[in-house]
TrEMBL record:
Superkingdom of the source species: Eukaryota
Protein name as annotated: Integrase catalytic domain-containing protein
Molecular function terms, GO-annotated: nucleic acid binding
Signal sequence residues: none
The species this protein was found in: Austropuccinia psidii MF-1
Amino acid sequence: MDFITQLPLPSSFDSILVIVDRFSKMAVFIPTMSSITSLDLANLFNKNIFSKHGVPSSI
């Protein structure tokens, strides 16, 4: 997981959350704001990752 920040503002988003599945090498890019809180980040994971792929059984 990483953030790409300080992007130009063509819309209301100024950052991109990048999540890479190390097994399949699939990357997910989620537009967000640089002022994201930990609660907002958890909600993004629930909405964009866990809802599509499920919660991991181990880390």
